[in-house]
Fold this sequence. Notes:
- The protein is built from ten helices and seven strands.
- The protein is an alpha+beta fold.
- The protein has a five-stranded mixed β-sheet, with helices on one face.
- α1 packs antiparallel against α2 (70-93) and α7 (337-347) crosses α9 (372-388).
- The radius of gyration is 60 Å and the shape is rod-shaped.
Amino acid sequence: MGRFLVTCMAIGFFALIAAGVAAAWSTAQNEHHTREVNHTYEVELAIDRARIAIEQSETARRGYLLTSEPVYLGTYRTAMAAVPKAVGTVATLTEDNPRQQGNVITMRRLVGDLSAQRERTIAAAEAGDRAGALTQFEQETSIRRMRAVRSLADTMVREERRLLAVRDAAQQASVQVFYVTLAVAGLLLVLVAFITLVTVLRYTRELATSRDALRDFADTLEDLVDERTADLSRANEEIQRFAYIVSHDLRSPLVNVMGFTAELEAATGAITELIDRAEEKAPEIVSEDARLAAREDLPEAIRFIRTSTQKMDRLINAILKLSRQGRRVISAEPLDIAVLIDGIGASLTQQIEHRGATLTVEQPLPNLFSDRVAVEQIFSNLIENAVKYLDPARPGRIVVRGKREGKRIHYEIEDNGRGIAPSDHARVFDLFRRSGTQDQPGEGIGLAHVRALAYRLGGVIDVSSELGRGATFRLTLPATYTEAKTDTRGR
């Protein structure tokens, strides 16, 4: 659709360019033809002026010969003086026309012959021989030469008229080309506009249809999301209830095992004491196996049992803690995250100073409207983990930063510690799973607890890290906590 509209716009643009070029070309042609037409009229006017000067000089000469009046002689001299200039103007204006140049040469020859004959009759009249002057006038061939001049002038005018007709035809042709180009460009513009309009209308209809379908889908999707959220909430509650019940039920036999272990340890003491007395009074009745069993095997087995039961007790307590957090009611309130981080840093001051580390909070740090306990536990776990797993080979550095994007806030807790192998990025959030060298105390529930709390608050958490280059935990939470809708159907 986009390419089609761009193509239509390009065609319309080229049509406008063609119309502009045609208009410019036609304007230039019109200006050229106008100059040519004006030039033709100037040539005609110059030819007429030359002919008038020749005719006027002839008329003045005849008047002088008939009347001997000096005024006619003065008019003759004036007219004859203007003839060369008028013929020269014609020659100058027709320099680009060889045919007219030939006519000008002929006219100058005819004018020269006429001038010689006229001067002879004028000289006789001035000498007082009027009769002789009249006789020469009657015998001369000036009438034939005047006719030749008139005919030549008419020929030159016809030549200019022919050129005028040619130039008019060329001008008409250029005007026709302009109008044809303009019509084609206009037709293209109308066609492009029509096609574009039809395309846009069709696209608009499709867009409206898609919008309606999207709105219906959004409504359906919202219901589906509510339903899935309710299902997940029920499943989460069931899992939490199951974890609580299982942990509670496991604790009862564990307590029994621990109790019997204590009794067994007391019995082991009594047996060891008995073995000691028997060795003193009747050593022959005490076998080596009995001695090893009483003094080494039984105490070692009891220590293994006690260590295992203590570990199981810690794991059961962790599961109970997670299940209690899942059942705790979320209470949202405005939280100043910078102040909250400062409090966490103060509680970890001894550990941070012991490791020679620094905790930096980049301002401004966006605030939240969420559950204080859950948010504090999330940041406490992440910052404590960062302190715990710093690299002793370099000064520790922990940075907390955040930024808001729309309705969600992204926090980063970055450290320059040991780092996490890429293959362990996902598993570190699993319950009882740990990564790297296990030289720090813990049961592997901290990050699982963080992820569970983040999910509970409507957020997510992930990590990016490389071994030996530190880790960056990215926590995304809604700026304002909204309690998820719970569907009670089927309960």
